[in-house]
Structure formats: C-alpha cells, structure tokens
Amino acid sequence: MLKIGLTGGIGSGKSTVADIFKVLGIAIFDADAAAKNIMNVDENLKQRIIETFGAETYTDGVLNRQVLGGIVFKDPLKLEQLNALVHPATIAAAERWMTEQKGPYAVKEAALFFEAGSATGLDYMIGVTAPKALRIKRVMDRDKATRDEVLTRMARQIDDDIKMRLCDFVIINDDQQLLIPQVLKVHQQLVDFTQRG
C-alpha cells in the first residue's frame, strides 16, 4: 500500500480535495484534527504544554485553543516550541494509522509536511494550490479573520511555489479548473502505481 501526503498552504482547499478522495473510498488521516485530539487525550503531552505555556491553556482538562492560540500565534518562538511538542506525537499517530489501512493507498493530510519534516517515509506528495488573493479571501471568509491575520499565518508556511515544486502531483484549486477530474487523474495514477508495483 502506498503512503501519500496531501498538502497545501492555508486557504488552498486541501480539505476539499481530501473530501473527494474520501468519496473515492480512500482513507484520510487529518493531521490537524489528530493534533487537536492528541492535545486533549495524551496526558504526557498535556503536562508538557501546561509546563511550557501555563495552566490556563487547559480548562477542566480540555485544551483552551483560544488561550493557546493567543500565546503562540503572536510569538514565532513559542509556536516553534508548541510544534516541537505536538508534531512528534502527531507523526507517530499517523504512522500507526497508516499501518492499519487497507486499499491501494492511504492519504495523510497536513499543512506543514515540509516545515515539520514529516514528509519522510511517504511514497508520493500531492500539493493543492490556489492564487494568493483567492486563498486570502477564503480564509478571511472562513475564519472571520482580517487580511493581516491571514498574511501573518501565511508567512509561517513555506512559500507556495516552493511547496508545489516539492510535490509529485499538483492540483489547481483556483475556482476556474474543475477539481474532480484532477483528483480522478491523480487517483488513477496512484492505483496504476500499486498495480505495477
């Protein structure tokens, strides 16, 4: 079974692409959702987050994302500290999940593959891209965020052009080109690879 990564900058629409793969019967590991869950259920990780960022990061044993976000999104060093705690646990969870999957391939969806160093061990990487102005508008609409807030979040990710050059397949989600035929084409190529291999 092939291990596939699915990535894209904020607002690129990688979750929409992941949903299309799901419809095709492909198992998807959502790294962002997994990380949020792990921060609530992994007692060792919870303790380390409290030690690093303060007791107010948890309310009645549940992660207070607003408090933690307020701390780390203003300070790149603190965000790096959080990622150093959370990424290894999320990567390990994804590896365990991958070993349990059946089918021609399984997909791990994450925004920060290259930034987190978690692209190793994957067979192929799929990138989702969209024009910067469209990505900004999508995130502003989705998160009720200001343009400056979106640009700050974008600045923490590898430049989209560089990210796409690191990918084996690129899907363009610009609201002009149809998404489903692009995903079907990649899906067929991956199925073909598994049949040949």
Describe the structure.
The protein is 57% helix and 15% strand. It has 10 helices and 7 strands. It has a 5-stranded parallel beta sheet with strand order 2-5-1-6-7, sandwiched between helices. The radius of gyration is 17 Å and the shape is globular. The chain starts with a strand and ends with a helix.
Question: What attributes does this structure have?
Answer:
Rossmann fold; 7 strands
Outline:
The chain has 197 residues and is α/β, with parallel strands linked by helices. It is 57% helix and 15% strand. Helix 3 (43-53) packs antiparallel against helix 5.
Query: Roughly how much helix do the residues carry, as a percent range?
Result: 55-70%
Q: What is the makeup of the main sheet?
A: 5 strands, parallel
- List how many beta strands DSSP finds: 7
> Overall mean pLDDT score?
93
Distance between the termini: 10 Å
Strand content: 5-15%
CATH superfamily of the largest domain: P-loop containing nucleotide triphosphate hydrolases
What general form does the structure show? Answer: globular
Quote the CATH topology of the largest domain: Rossmann fold
User: If helices are DSSP runs of H or I spanning 4 or more residues, what is the number of helices?
Assistant: 10
* Estimated radius of gyration: 17 Å
Number of structural domains: 2
Q: Element order, helices and strands?
A: EHEHHEEHHEHEHHHEH
For the record, the CATH class of the largest domain is Alpha Beta
- Secondary structural class: alpha/beta
Low-confidence segments: none
The strand order across the widest sheet is: 2-5-1-6-7
Second-tier CATH architecture of the largest domain: 3-Layer(aba) Sandwich
